[in-house]
């Protein structure tokens, strides 16, 4: 037996969606204009189908699919480079956008990107056979980062995530490590951008940029450093 699952995703207009995926390196392998707008894009083993709906509202979309790959870091770099070439920057909010690459608490290393049609494509590589959520860490700042990440990315509640980070960074008598501080500030800046709070975003980015890390710390914080660069663009 040989089966293949292919997502068929909605959009208001096909062309902006096709332009987006072409920028990422996909090839448009099929295009139909009538009787119904329909198109197919492919990259390696990834195949996505799209259909057009005149009444579709991308900002209200909840459509999504998951792409598993053995080279999530490679795809992330390819997609970032393609988006920067096409848009002059790496879009981190609005439509389209690409999120940070990071290790998740359920044994996946992944990133999320949302196309102009509002479709969220989750791209990830398993890092563990255990795909269940781990318990939140006990340490104060690791726990705050865990909960804020879940709220911001999985539950789409950036306001609640912002409160967690602001609260933990205001604690008396406890201080995060420099890596933890960078991770928290980068996530806080990312959240501020999603909330259209540009003043907070700039202030937090300035704080994050001022942090100096050693070689080992920089390696540990590589995902946050890369996201910091994207947010500064």
- What's the number of extended β-strand segments? 9
Gap between N and C termini, in Å?
48 Å
Please state the overall shape, judged from the principal axes of the Cα atoms.
globular
Structural class category:
alpha+beta
Task: Give an overview of the whole structure.
The protein is of the alpha+beta class and 233 residues long. The chain has 8 helices and 9 strands. It has helices spanning 14-24, 72-87, 140-154, 158-169, 178-194, 198-209, 215-220, 222-232; strands at residues 8-11, 27-32, 38-43, 46-52, 64-68, 97-98, 102-103, 108-114, 120-126. Strands 5, 6, 7, 8 and 9 form a 5-stranded mixed β-sheet that branches. A 4-stranded mixed β-sheet has the order 1-4-3-2, covered by helices on one side. The longest helix has 17 residues, at 178-194. 31% of the residues are buried.
Please outline the helices and strands.
Elements lengths: L7 E4 L2 H11 L2 E6 L5 E6 L2 E7 L11 E5 L3 H16 L9 E2 L3 E2 L4 E7 L5 E7 L13 H15 L3 H12 L8 H17 L3 H12 L5 H6 L1 H11 L1
Parallel strand pairs: 1-4, 5-9
Antiparallel strand pairs: 2-3, 3-4, 6-8, 7-8, 8-9
